[in-house]
Amino acid sequence: MERAQQQTAPDGANGPATRPGTPPVDLELLVHGVGGTTPEEMLDDPCTVRITGDDTAAVFRRAADVDAEDRPEEYRDRPVPEAYVWCNLTSGNSARALWLLLLPFMVVNLAHWMRPATRGHHRTVRLYGLLVRLAGLSLTVLLVAAACEVALDLVAWQCAGVEACAARHSWLGFLSPAASGEGWWSLPGRRLALAALVPAALTYLLWYLSRRTWSAYESQPLPHRPEPDEQTGPTALGSPGFWYGRRLVARLRAAHTAAGLLTVAAAIVSPAARFDRGPGGSDVLDSLGRLLIAALCGTAAVVLWVVCRRGRSENRLDRELDEHLVRRLPLAALVLLALALPYAGWSRPGWQSAGRLSGDTAFGVIPLVQGLLVVVIAVVAHLLHRTPPPEPGSAGQTGAPAGRRAAMRGLGGPAVALLACALGGVMSGGVAQRVADWLDGTGSSIDGPPVLLTWQASVIPPLLVALLALVGWLSWRTWQLSRAERSTVQRDYPKEPADPATTRRIARTRAMAALTDRAPLLVAVVSATTLLLGAGALVGGLDTGKTPGEAAGHTYAVVRGAAETAQALGSWLIGLGFVLFVTWGRRAYKDASARRTIGILWDVGTFWPRAAHPFAPPCYAERAVPDLTWRMATWTQSTGGRLVISGHSQGSVLAAAAAWQLTPSVRKRVALLTYGSPLERLYGRWFPAYFGPAELGSLHREVARWRNLHRLTDPIGGPVRLPGDCGPDVDRAPLKDPLALGRTARHPLPAPVLGHSDYQADPAFAEERERLLAGLRPDVPGQRPEQAP
Questions:
Q1: pTM over 0.85
Q2: How remote is the C-alpha of 227 from its chain's centroid?
Q3: CB of 698 within 8 A of CB of 667?
Q4: Given a cut of 90, is residue 683 above it in pLDDT?
Q5: Which DSSP string corresponds to 58-71?
Q6: In this predicted structure, what is the pLDDT of residue 260?
Q7: For residue 428, what pLDDT band results from cuts at 50, 70 and 90?
Q8: Contact at 8 Å (CB) between 504 and 484?
Q9: Under a CB-based contact definition with an 8 Å cutoff, are residues 715 and 769 in contact?
Q10: Mean pLDDT of the region 28-43
Q11: Where are the transmembrane segments (predicted)?
Q12: In this predicted model, what pLDDT tens digit does every residue of 571-629 receive, in sequence order?
């Protein structure tokens, strides 16, 4: 299998126009979907050549088609296929496995883009983005606080300070006062200072990963627009700076890095300052501690100001960088951390480590702030949802309001933000609980993690019970829908004999595919249950200061037993989840197939730019969309040929985003063919402000032609559902799947149920592609698409 590794194409593939008097060739630019594939599979040829690009993302052609522009007479009846392969952007090398640790950051970043569609109300829109950015900042503080809990509290303060625990772990011998005979590192403050290197190193790792991906993704150059005065349509996806978040991500990275370092410094300074304020404390150290705390609070206020001050700038290409802020803010936090280390390590006679550090207060304040933020985000989202959305389609069209199909009536964003906070809490509690169990083999030598983490673990069993009840109800509804679909399946194959087994299989597949439309219900139930149970755990942990079993000690035995069971089972489940999480990440680090599975998750979750959290996995679309835009713009302008961009699944979303980035004159020379597309079914419902009816309607009017193919057996793709006359013009009637119910003369062997894959196998694909190309010809009127599959 041969693949040339050249960076520029031969004559004709990249730029030279065809000979005068010869009609230009047609081009079909294929964009694959989630999971990725190879150019050989996309082009159905073992010999492919890289036309342009690198090892991360590139455009390929068949070896026989490299010089197609020089032989236009051979391509009068068919287009030249090209394949854009972008799968390595999300599932490339083994370092992608580390992105699992960034999952809460990715989820909260999605919440930023889920705001409801609205007309005007720019201040409310900015408030929504500000609140989500604050929720993202709280997740950074939570993650670093969990690292401080493990390293400073459990290891350095509790285990190293107790002879029984330190004796079981020889590597802690030099920190234990009993084992080292009051050695230099045995003082509590010096143990804390040494352990602080762990969360500080974690903060540096997050900063380094964010900066490296920022240089590779957010700093991609965009095509120059020769027509700056022309409108790009009503959607923000067509704005010049939408896929260029270099300045915002740099500012957020500086603020979050500083917040992480300040969290570590506060974890060191607080216990020492508390002792200095006591009877045995020093007045000089007490004054120094107060100055450090004041400096920490002042720098934290600057961090909040930076996060709140500036959001995304999309209307123009913002190439500036706030160098003074990006460098000085983390440096100031690092200096405070460096000052906190000797302050905490200063000798304090009589200071001994006993009990826990002040983790209960910290882990109580963080979820309280997160809960309040989620509630306010929900109020703002509801206000935006109630305002009139943009008109769907052009003048004179009628249809359903844009917000009617929005997920959870516009509350999808706050629900997802809540799930991000809950996921961060589960990950933090899981790490702390597992480390405590590992350090304390007998379960009696140390106090363990904060009580509030135990309360949070105890809510997992009732949450799973509610989830299982919902899954049971959905299974029953799916079974009902499957029975109802059998008669519909039989009517779809009127000329074939009945085949009950195949009919049941197709009906079951259709019913399972319809579960995608139930996702908002699932998210609503899980988020509402999480909010209620989390609020109860927060009240119980802060009010009683005891574990659930201890708090129920004076009630009925049944209640006490249920509380203790939930506590033990939740602790076991959260530990099991953490072990599975680490195991999956380790397997993905070594196994390419497992890494590809994680890549599918990132394909869906990292399409959007990093607007709320700079430590989230990078947005691959900030590389893929400029790639596609450059290719379409340069090819159409240099050859004058017709172009169909053909996107499958997530590739259709990239294709639409790239089409919005084209200038209007180039956009009119491009046709769009989408199949298995989640543009309306997923993106239109969950991201209505960017893929609502008004935005998709504008795309239909601005490209030359657009056709969309879907199947009822497809769990991801669906119709675009444009209102009025635009709907039938874009959506073809659902394709038959399978092509034959049983054995026929044309299909002598059983036909498979394809679902979301292999749309090119259907004859309708080539038929619609030919109609799109014919519609692009200036001298031939386009045929009106048929509605029969």
A1: yes
A2: 33
A3: no
A4: yes
A5: EEEEEGGGTTGGG-
A6: 96
A7: confident
A8: no
A9: no
A10: 89
A11: 127-147, 192-209, 254-275, 287-308, 329-346, 366-384, 411-432, 452-476, 519-539, 569-586
A12: 777 767 766 766 766 665 566 556 555 656 667 788 999 999 999 988 889 889 999 99
String of b and e for 97-120 (b: at least 16 CB within 10 Å)?
Answer: bebbbbbbbbbbbbbbbbbbbbee
- Average pLDDT of span 130-158: 94
pLDDT of residue 148: 94
Ordered by start, the domain boundaries in the chain are: 3-86+620-776, 461-592
pLDDT in tens, 95-121: 565 667 788 999 999 999 999 988 878
Q: How many residues does the chain have?
A: 789
Burial (CB count <10 Å: 0-12, 13-18, 19+), residue 219: middle
CA 131 – CA 123 distance, rounded (Å)? 12
Residues in Cβ contact with 328 at an 8 Å cutoff, skipping those fewer than 6 apart: none
79's tokens: 């287009």
Distance of CA 354 to the CA centre of its chain: 42
Q: Which residues of 479-517 are buried (b: 16+ CB within 10 A; e: fewer)?
A: eebbeebbeebbebbeeeeebeebbeebbbbbbebbebe
Buried b or exposed e, range 48-70, using 16+ CB within 10 angstroms: bbbbbbeebbbbbbbeebbebbb
Output the CA torsion sign for 109, 115, 119, 120.
negative
The whole-angstrom separation of Cα 303 and Cα 284 is 29
Rounded Cα distance between 117 and 387, Å, is 8
Which two tokens mark 9?
Answer: 């194409």
Q: At what angle do helices 519-544 and 359-386 cross, to 10 degrees?
A: 140
Tell the CATH topology of 3-86+620-776.
Rossmann fold (3.40.50)
> At 268, is the pLDDT very low, low, confident or very high (cuts 50, 70, 90)?
very high
